[in-house]
Amino acid sequence: MLTNKDGARMMKRSIIILLAAIIVVAGAALRFFPHEKPRPYLPAIPAYLRQGKIALLKINNISSLRNADTLKAFFDSVEAPIILLNNQRYILVAVDYEKALGTYPLTVIREGQEIIEDSVRIIDGRFPVRRLSFPYEPAVAAKKDRRVAERIRTDRSVMRNALTRKSPNQLWDDLAFGFPLDSIEITSPFGTTRIYTNQKQGRPHTGVDLNTGFTPVKSIGKGRVLWASGRQLYLEGKMVVIDHGQGIISLYMHLSRVKVNDGAEVNYGQIIATSGQTGNARGTHLHLNVRVGEALVDPIQFVKVFRAIAARK
Q1: CA pair distance 134, 149, nearest whole angstrom
Q2: Tell me, what DSSP letter sits at residue 91?
Q3: Contact of 107 with 77, CB cutoff 8 Å
Q4: What are the φ/ψ torsions at residue 30 (nearest 5 degrees)?
Q5: pLDDT at 4 (0 to 100)
Q6: I want to staple 51 with a disulfide (CB 3.0 to 4.6 A). Which of 44, 74, 125, 232 is the partner?
Q7: Burial class (CB within 10 angstroms; exposed 0-12, middle 13-18, buried 19+) of 256
Q8: Strand partners, 71
Q9: Is residue 42 situated within a structural domain?
C-alpha cells in the first residue's frame, strides 16, 4: 500500500521524466527546424544625408540569417549595393548631387520578403558658388562652329556606351579606396556652382579638381579599365574610366598620358596615367569623378568614408 510520501515521490519523478522528455523533443525540433535570431537591423541610420554624399550602413545579425546572399537593398525604389568589407555587409547609400530634398524609403528584402524598412532624409548639399571672370569657352566655340557642338554630343554618346559595360560584381577588395595623388590640394570642390560671364545660370561641378603638375595618377581602387585607349574627348581630354564593380566607377580627366589599356585589371594605388591639361582645362590639374549607379557623389567624401571603415580591421 502506497503512503502519501511514496505518492509524492512518484509524482515528483513523473514530473522530472516529463520535463526531460520535453527538453529532448524541443532539442530535436530545433535541429530539424532551424531557428533564426532576431532579424537584421540598421543600428545607425543617419539623421540626414546631404546631396552628393554617401553612407555605409552596417547590417547587423547577418550571421543569423539563412540565405544571406539573397539580400537586396533599395533606396528610393532603386537597388543600392550591398557590399562586403572586413567580413561585414553594408548598404551603400549614394545621394546624387541633384537629388530633390525630402525623405526617401530604405528597404532590405530577402527572398521576396521585406525584413528592414526605414527612411533617409536628404538635405541641401551646401555647395559653394563661384563667379568667374571669363566665358565658358566650349559654349563660345560651339556657337561659332557647329562641328564643335556635334563633337561634344558624339563624345557623350560614346561615353554612355562605355559605361554600360560595368560589372554587377564587387571588383575591389578590403583595401577599399584611396586618393589618386600622394598630396591632395583641392582647387575646385565637388558641387561648386560656377557662373561664367556668358551664362545667366551656373554650371555645377560634378567632380573635384586637384592641383597637380605633370604628376602620376593612381587608381583609387581595384577594378577593370572601361576606357583608356579611346580618342581624346573635347571637354574631358585624355581620360581613364575604371569600373570597381557594383555600379561604382571612377573617372580621371585632362590627362597628359595614359598608361593602361581598355579591359586591363588594375590594383589599388596602381599608376594609371599622368595628369595634364588636355580637353577644356585651364592649367594642369586632375578632375576626378565618382559615380555610384546613376548618382554623382563627392569623390573626397567617398574615399574618406570607405577608408574609415577599412581601417577598423
Answers
A1: 20
A2: E
A3: no
A4: -65, -35
A5: 54
A6: 125
A7: middle
A8: 110
A9: no
Domain count, the chain: 3
Q: Which helix (H) or strand (E) holds 154?
A: helix 146-163
d(CA 287, CA 280): 11
Distance of CA 283 to the CA centre of its chain: 30
Side-chain half-sphere CA neighbours of 47 within 13 A: 0
Name the pTM for this structure.
0.83
83 close to 302: Cβ distance less than 8 angstroms: no
**H or E segment to which residue 131 belongs:** strand 129-131
Bridge pairing between strands 238-245 and 208-211 = unpaired
For the chain, give the mean pLDDT: 84
What's the rounded Cα separation, in Å, for the pair 284 and 238?
A: 13
Task: Give yes or no: residues 154 and 245 share one domain.
Answer: yes
Pairing of strands 49-50, 113-123: parallel
**In the structure, what pLDDT confidence band is assigned to residue 29 with cuts at 50, 70 and 90?**
very low
What secondary structure does DSSP assign to 257-298, as a single string?
A: EE---TT-EE-TT-EEEEEB--SS-SSSEEEEEEEETTEEE-
Same structural domain, 13 and 69: no
Same domain, 199 and 300: yes
Rg of the chain taking only CA atoms, in angstroms: 28
How far apart, in whole angstroms, are the C-alpha atoms of residue 69 and residue 251?
Answer: 30
Between the alpha carbon of residue 30 and those of residues 23, 66, 132, the distances in Å are: 11, 14, 70
